Amino acid sequence: MGADYAFIVAASANYAPAIRAMFNSLEALGNRHRVIFLSFRFREIPDVSFPVEFVESTEPECQVRGTAIERFKIAYEIVHDYDAICLLDADMFFLRPVDLFFDVAASGFIVTGSNGMVIDYHREFQDRYNLDMLS
Questions:
Q1: Strand partners for 34
Q2: 21, exposed or middle or buried, with CB in 10 Å at 0-12, 13-18, 19+?
């Protein structure tokens, strides 16, 4: 059996065109990996052949906290269920398959995002999202 990989992407309705582009690009490339879709009151995605799991944001009022930040909590909660996880921005799309990058990440290398962002999982962040990552 092959490695188990997943994408996590978060979006609200204002990202509808971008999400369509992302999902359609994954479909065109024959993606078979699960996409975990963190929705902020938005469920309109293209019909695709790969597995999509909807997770509704628990943030009641703020899209930024509800989509941009909450996806890191989801990644933390499912980290042991997958060999590698790729967090995506809603406005990304694919031109080539990304299995090589998943394979590299699964081998133990950390692959960073396009903006070089470093996530600081400080105590305040962990407390806000009920994480206990320092144990």
A1: 6
A2: middle
Distance CA 32, CA 51 (A): 7
CB 59 within 8 A of CB 70: yes
The alpha carbon of 97 is separated from its chain's Cα centroid by a whole number of angstroms, namely 16
The three-state secondary structure class of 36 is strand
Tell me how long the chain is: 135
User: Which DSSP helix (H) or strand (E) runs through 19?
Assistant: helix 16-28
* Most confident by average pLDDT, 51-55, 62-66, 111-115: 51-55
Residue with the two structure tokens 């790969």: 50
Q: Can you give the pLDDT at residue 134?
A: 47
d(CA 11, CA 64): 9
Average pLDDT, the chain: 80
Residue 41 and residue 13 in contact, taking contact as beta carbons nearer than 8 Å: yes
Q: Which two tokens stand for residue 55?
A: 């997770």
Amino acid 73: pLDDT: 82
The Cα 49–Cα 66 span in angstroms is: 27
